[in-house]
Give the backbone structure.
Amino acid sequence: MNGNTNTPVWKEADKNFATTAIHSGFNPTEETHGCVVPPISLATTYEQDAPAKHRGFEYTRSGNPTRSVLEKTIAALDKGKHGMCFSSGLAATTNIISLLNSGDHAVCIDDVYGGTGRLFRQFAKTAGIVVDFVDFTDPKELEKHLKPTTKLIWVETPTNPTLKIVDIQKVSEIAHKFSKDIIVAVDNTFLTSYFQRPLELGADLVVYSLTKYMNGHSDVLMGAIVTNDDDLFKRIAFLQNSLGAVPSPFDCYLVIRSLKTLHVRMPLHMHNALAVSKYLESHPKVEKVLHPGLPSHSQHELALKQSSGHSGLISFYLKGDPTKFLQNLKLFCLAESLGGYESLAEVPSLMTHASVPPELREKLGITDSLIRLSVGLEADVDLVKDLEQALKLC
């Protein structure tokens, strides 16, 4: 697999990403203790020099030294001004939706992470926020759904789990031309700032489940938001403190550690996923493989133009028995989530996207034969062998 030269030519990557990841957010020379690694601050409260006169921190929900290092690093990697971290990706999403008022309108990509769609539907029911789920991979479809009350456009690209690509620059141009009050938020969890930077393409907010590739070790639950907009930062920071869904200092420390190797991990995820995709695409028991790096993907050229690579996420339609296939895998673990060093496999219709209404699942092609793989960092030849033996038994 390593000798295959038929590889896609992506947008040029940021050559300084590794340096930014390793040196942003914390400088030992500026600290009296001289620690090379940012220390974990477990304190929940901080001594003040006088009433209401503190040294940058007063209560850990409002701000924490370890979290501050992570937030600065996250922002720097997206070339953004402001980073904010939350207790989960959905907590970050909740804070963004909380910017809206009853009667406001939001447009969300139709093929979206099941938890995000569930959250939007819940807010629509209880808070009076009107939400349309639209396939705006064709930007003209987005234009049809914009209203004077539209305040938020939610983009996920590549989408979860069918890996459709949304033109971030085009969507941002359409939204901001229609109204300066529309917020364009892009869930960049699948690609991370290593492969894609939505702020540079016109988005107002970048959203992450740091649980996935950014942390990459399947041992932290966390989310983040990055923005260049000072006003949006102030509004979301207010909600971050008021709603209180913030991460622990220890978890922040773990993600800081993980970001130092993001530039090492992501290319290997990409290599392995492409190797697996090419193998599956040639297998008689596989109907179709979904990977933006494959020429067979309907938006292959847009993916190459917009991103500098793809992660370990792929999906495919199986002709055999999904249950037998999954139960016979040895290296791929049958589990939800994605983005860790270990390879995972799941059936979205029964697992991560079970909360999506059945009629919408059918429309999106999220059938029981659709398998989603999170290809990890194992040897590519071993991953292919594992798939090969499981396919024989299904």
